[in-house]
Amino acid sequence: MTRDERRVSSSQVVNIADVRRVAQRRLPPVAFDYVDGGADGEVTMRANARAFQEVTFRPRNAVAPDGCGLRTTVLGSELAMPLLLAPCGFSRLIHPQGEIAAARAAGKAGVGFVLSTISAYRLEEVAAASSGPRWYQLYLVGGRAAAEPALERAWRAGFTVLAITVDTATFGMRERDVRNGAAVLVGNNLPAKIRFLPQLLAHPGWLAGFLRDGGMLELPNVIVPGRGPMPLAEAPSALTRSVVTWEDLRWLRKAWPGPLIVKGILTGDDARRAVDEGAAGVIVSNHGGRQLDGVAASLRALPEVVAAVNGKAEVLMDGGVQRGGDIAKALCLGARAVLAGRAYMYGLGAAGEAGVARVLAILRADLERAVTLLGCSSVGELNRSYVDIPAGWPSQSS
User: Fold this and answer.
1) Which band of pLDDT confidence, cut at 50, 70 and 90, is reported for residue 215?
2) Residue 93 has pLDDT above 60, yes or no
3) Of 287, 323, 336, 364, which one is the catalytic site residue?
């Protein structure tokens, strides 16, 4: 057993919160808080987790389920359980292997991996590392001229679904990142970095790996015509200029040969518009509470979106997923599958690929146990009758 495997296989590491504590010990604040934090007062980030607590199960007892099938299909992707690893930018800041490690762990577990445009590894390298379903998430940093070649590369590399994020009209105010100097540390102003160095020097293991790896300097999947790869330092400002509009969606529907899914949907109106524009699916998401603070928890918005789509597209959700029971609740409320971001990023920070694998094993065991205790033989049996939701929540029949 490797050192990384030992770090997350302890009897004291039994849930995602335990993995989070290991990651917090190993990472400097600038890296840990980038994963752990949300926008403004972090109201929505906390609401995402609280929403799962407010939904309660209604099990069928005195039954003996015949096994527990977790397999499902999402937009043509065969999954060993209804879970994909959400697109998370700057993963190499958390661990030198970043997206490579996460994609490899996802492939071994049979779950999907969604690669962010803001990756420090070439999409071809990530594709080669994964033996499982892989999707590509597009930001229009660099404009359409940079996006079109990336889409061609992604399709050739075996990415089968394109995820379009629509909730980044500007960058969320992530106060922890400002205090920790995240923008300064990835920028080019060397004198400005000095006051933030103590937090890095206090975590020599992480710092040595980061420097040995060469750090994150550019985005190899954003090739700006006439310039080459976009420098990492430009990414935050470029994101604020790259909002995806409905007009862009129509263009992307023609440019991408596979299914397209829209991420960042919180209302029935936007869900219907996405379907009308040719989306094969929507992801109910508030960006993990990292964009507009004060919007609804993703789970709370899920029933409205499911009702609006009315079976015309597949519905997924992300935001606050920390346990297998959370996955089960989302499925009961109409989600085809969920995406998890923070959970696996904690694993990446705690122990690289071994940490991500441990997170996936925890979630799988949790989900299998929850489905069995609900009295079901497979995730396909889960429906609205297995949960109670608080008064005032939207319902699928509304």
Assistant:
1) low
2) yes
3) 287
The burial of 321, by beta-carbon neighbours within 10 Å (0-12 exposed, 13-18 middle, 19 or more buried), is given as buried
Q: How many domains, the chain?
A: 1
Residue 161 lies in a domain: yes
Would you say the pTM of this structure is higher than 0.85? Answer: yes
The total of other beta-carbon atoms located within 10 Å of residue 145's CB is 11
- Cβ distance 318 to 338 under 8 Å? yes
**Domain containing residue 374:** 3-382
Phi, psi (degrees; rounded to nearest 5) at 141: -65, 130
pLDDT at position 214: 64
Please report, for the domain that includes residue 99, its CATH number.
Answer: 3.20.20.70
Residue 397 falls within a domain, yes or no?
no
**For residue 179, how many other CB atoms are within 10 A of its CB?**
13
| Within-domain flag for 389 | no
Q: Is residue 375 part of a domain?
A: yes
pLDDT of residue 216: 61
More confident residue, 187 or 22: 22
pLDDT band at 398 (very low <50, low <70, confident <90, very high): very low
Task: Based on the residue annotation, tell me whether 203 is a catalytic residue of this protein.
Answer: no
94, 157, 163: which is closest to 122 by C-alpha? 157
Cβ-based neighbour number of residue 30 at 10 Å: 23
